[in-house]
Amino acid sequence: MAKVYTRTGDQGETSLYSGERVPKCCPRIDAYGTVDELQASLGLARAFVSHESVGEVLYELQRSLVHAMAEMATLGGEARIRAEEVEGLEQTIDKFSALVPSGFSFQVPGESAGSAALHVARTVARRCERVILASIDEGLATSATLAFFNRISDLCYVLARYEDEAKEEER
């Protein structure tokens, strides 16, 4: 394996896709670093969920986040998160919502490992949305990008409920 360290970030700077050097604490780096954290959280949830269909949804979502991070790292480029992606998430939310009892309820995470991991991912998605919104003046996000991250947290909530319902049926 090649060396994974470059020493180029040792002074608190990193490179964007364009090669431009920026401080690691700049809002753009914070935003796509938080998206990277969300992607890892979704991977953890995928490792714990009990339904193959949920794992497939999470995998596709992780792939979408790669595009979101690329968009954030290359401002001025083509928007990769569009209304179609938001609509796709809404369709998935509706599909799984139909499989759980209707109505909103606050959840206490921990009924199952998969559900608990999905709740962690949900809270990271909420933080992503806040961090991206805080850096909106830098042109970091479109309205579709903000809606996309809002729907991710909704999707994680519904999937966590779905995981818990399945756990309840096993009892």
Automatic annotation (TrEMBL):
Keyword hit for Transferase: yes
Q: Quick one: which pathway?
A: Cofactor biosynthesis; adenosylcobalamin biosynthesis; adenosylcobalamin from cob(II)yrinate a,c-diamide: step 2/7
Reaction it catalyzes: 2 cob(II)yrinate a,c diamide + reduced [electron-transfer flavoprotein] + 2 ATP = 2 adenosylcob(III)yrinate a,c-diamide + 2 triphosphate + oxidized [electron-transfer flavoprotein] + 3 H(+); 2 cob(II)alamin + reduced [electron-transfer flavoprotein] + 2 ATP = 2 adenosylcob(III)alamin + 2 triphosphate + oxidized [electron-transfer flavoprotein] + 3 H(+)
Q: Which residues form a coiled coil?
A: none
Q: Which GO terms describe its biological process?
A: cobalamin biosynthetic process
- Write down the superkingdom of origin: Bacteria
What is the protein name for this chain? Answer: Corrinoid adenosyltransferase
Q: What is the protein's species of origin?
A: Gordonibacter massiliensis
